[in-house]
Design brief:
8 strands; 16 helices; 335 residues; globular; eight-stranded mixed sheet; alpha/beta
Length: 335
């Protein structure tokens, strides 16, 4: 049995905390909000973000960050990506040398173009940082539906420890050394999912969705490999797997926001309607920053940025994508 704190009580943090509790671990959940802690403690359910999922009686909830960090075998960092840096900074004084932090959020910081694990390492240099990612909606994990993820770490020993802690008969965990590839796949698929949602909002069909998914993963892989990620990662669970589920699922907040934008909502109106952090909006500008830095064309992501931040009509963006210059599907293939 491990002593584990989940830092962040959103839908994903709560679902993972329940999973870890069911695996026999001693689980504590931290939230910055007193009212959220009170709700979780008294109702044993996240009534807003994970309704109908009953939480184990032995799970504890607190706003005390020092108590949540000190003496724990594993810290699961599950705050939304815009709060990764500030939360890491607050955690730093209490983290012990070599303490393991597993980041489960997805995103790239716009101002620095850093991945979330790079941010954590910068703010908490004494910690060992790993990631857990994959096609895994909290709503389904909370209900115990079969799900697969990938644990990424710098050493096989650490990845296998995470695998052992999280894995059970409904939650299968693979291991990988490609932390960068895992994080980029998880962050950039949210931007492509916005495009898929926009297409749905415009009334387009399955052909459009398939095109966005396949060309979207081509963009992500092109950039990811230029940055040092591995092609096989983008062809796996944290690449094409995560992209498929986020572009197609009714649970996807990025797709939901995209649908609203396709129907004529502004980006701000769509985010307000979804009532949760839409990670793709926060990662979209960062993706274009990476595109410029590494000189990699990202046509779908570029059009999403123009729709989000330059008031470009969504239908016009799709037309522009369709009328781009003719080219081979893969220029590496020889005739």
């Amino acid at each position: 049995m491990a002593k584990i704190s989940v830092i962040g009580a959103g839908s994903w943090g709560t679902a993972l905390a329940l999973l870890l509790s069911k695996n026999g671990h001693e689980v504590n959940v931290w939230s910055i909000m007193e009212e959220e802690v009170k709700m979780l403690s008294e109702k044993r359910e996240h009534t807003e973000k994970l309704p109908g999922v009953k939480l184990a009686e032995n799970m504890t909830f607190t706003t005390d960050l020092e108590q949540s960090v000190k003496g724990k075998d594993l810290l699961v960092l599950a705050v939304p990506s815009p709060f990764t840096r500030s939360t890491s900074k607050s955690m730093c004084p209490y983290v012990e040398e070599g303490q393991l932090i597993v980041n489960v959020a997805k995103g790239v910081e716009e101002s620095t173009l850093m991945t979330l694990s790079e941010i954590i390492e910068q703010e908490i240099p004494k910690a060992e940082v790993a990631v857990l990612s994959g096609p895994s909606h909290a709503e389904e994990v909370g209900k115990g539906l079969p799900t697969t993820c990938v644990a990424g770490a710098k050493t096989k020993k650490t990845a296998e420890y995470i695998q052992e802690v999280f894995m059970n008969e409904v939650f299968r965990v693979y291991t990988s050394p490609d932390v960068l590839g895992i994080e980029l796949g998880g962050a950039l698929k949210n931007v492509v999912a916005l495009a898929a949602g926009i297409a749905d909002g415009l009334g387009y069909g399955d052909n459009t969705k398939a095109a966005l998914i396949t060309r979207g993963i081509a963009e992500i892989a092109r950039l990811g490999m230029k940055m040092g990620g591995e092609y096989k990662t983008f062809a796996g669970l944290t690449g094409i797997g995560d992209l498929i589920v986020t572009c197609a699922s009714v649970h996807s907040r990025n797709r939901r926001a995209g649908i609203l934008i396709g129907k004529g909502y502004s980006m701000e109106e769509a985010m307000k309607e979804v009532k949760m952090v839409v990670e793709g909006v926060h990662s979209a500008k960062a993706a274009m920053g990476l595109s410029k830095k590494y000189q990699v064309a990202l046509p779908i992501i570029e059009q999403v940025n123009q729709v989000l931040f330059e008031n470009k009509p969504a239908g016009e963006a799709v037309k522009e994508l369709m009328l781009r210059d003719r080219r081979d599907e893969d220029e590496a293939l020889e005739w």
